[in-house]
Write a structure and sequence with these properties.
This protein has 160 residues and is an alpha+beta fold. 30% of the residues lie in helices and 27% in strands.
């Protein structure tokens, strides 16, 4: 029985090797759907997807599931935009990773998913083109807090 399929654009928030070292698990966010995890490849196939996805990539994906969306597999992937410039600055990479971690760990309200998706696109572009990634992070967190109610925690429990 063929599984459910989905063709969509998505942003890559995280990338981790799965227990099967031949697959990679990605945390993805689409403009119309909540963040989900998807494995590169299929349990029935050993072939790789058409593109190797990296952090912060804007992609066009064909996803497939056979268990009502609990586990997604990337059937085909095409990178629309790769934000390579983020990796040229350690501070930009560190702060961009911190920002996507906030998004990946918290649910995005259904009515504001498209707005968060656009915010991520703008934030990735800004991280790649600025000499002050700290200001990009501060602004992105401020906009996210205003639109979603998120409050990024700091390491000292809120005490300065």
């Amino acid at each position: 029985m063929p599984g459910q399929q989905l063709q969509t654009e998505a942003l890559v928030l995280t990338r981790k090797p799965s227990a099967d070292r031949f697959q990679t698990t990605h945390r993805l966010l689409g403009p119309a759907w909540a963040a989900c995890s998807a494995c590169a490849g299929s349990p029935r196939k050993t072939t790789s997807t058409s593109a190797i996805l990296d952090l912060f990539d804007e992609t066009d994906l064909y996803l497939e599931t056979s268990n009502e969306g609990r586990t997604w597999f990337i059937k085909e992937a095409r990178v629309l935009l790769r934000h390579e410039a983020i990796g040229r600055s350690y501070d930009a990479l560190r702060l961009a990773s911190a920002f996507v971690t906030i998004i990946a760990r918290n649910p995005v309200h259904e009515e504001s998913r498209a707005g968060v998706y656009r915010l991520l696109q703008q934030t990735f572009a800004a991280f790649g083109s600025t000499s002050r990634p700290d200001l990009v992070y501060l602004k992105a967190c401020t906009v996210l807090r205003a639109t979603q109610g998120y409050i990024p925690s700091n390491r000292n429990g809120g005490r300065d």
